[in-house]
Amino acid sequence: MIQATLSKTSKWAGKLLVYGRFFSQIGFPHTEDTVSHLTGCPRLSSNVHSLPWIKAYPIQHGVSTRDAAAGMLQCLTAVTFFEEAYKVSKGDIILIHTVAGGLGLLMAQLAKHVGATVIGTTSTKEKAELAKQHGADHVILYPVENTVERVLEITNGEGVHAVFDGVGKDTFDANFKLLRRKGTLVSVGNASGAVPPFPPIKLMEKNLKLLRPTMNNYTVTPDEIHYFGNKVFELISSGVLKINVWKEYPFTAEGVQQAQQDLVGGKTTGKLIVKVQDA
Fold first, then answer.
1. Does residue 15 sit in helix, strand or coil?
2. Which region is the signal sequence (predicted)?
3. How far apart are CA 2 and CA 14, in angstroms?
4. Which carries the bigger pLDDT value, residue 257 or residue 53?
């Protein structure tokens, strides 16, 4: 059972009040009593809640409750996708759609950390500047620039090694023009709608790879949870991954309503936090 202090829908953090005998299987010591909860469990609607032990990640030294609540889900997504879906390495050139969002900013930082060149797409100059501050080398303003032409210009006509696309339907077809031979397309979201059915023979032209992974299937066993959980906390505590929080809101009807309005308004960057109580 957990007493929450910070929350964003089903991603939250707080004090562990009671734990079962199976909790030790996750590989973390019981002395760590502050945990971060991930998606896949019921959304938080009170300040005390229960959750399966496998969804609990004890927060490591040097990581604040605020950063854990805001960043754990998307940090795990970025880290697992960069290791399992496509191994981003030094010298790679990758494209991140909607790079100024919460996941996009984390991916840009992580890619820059390993020595990759980051191309991102976003909608405004303000978001482009934010993306550059978080590691993006080139940012394309898709409302006024042709993404395919700009990517091919930046890469001298070769295309990118990998595309991480959280947009979905609206950008799917163009991605095949952006990728180089033996490139990888990682579909990470459906912001514009689900990708329609397409013929697999489309991959044959450049020997491309296509994945539609979910982080939950990369963090199933206790060993996987322990490995990726520790890696995320190390990256946060060392400053490699900086969690961008747009705003904190009070845990009131008005506060939650305002957070929802700001979120769907499309003008935010990074994460929105609902603060249930002081830690």
1. strand
2. none
3. 6
4. 257
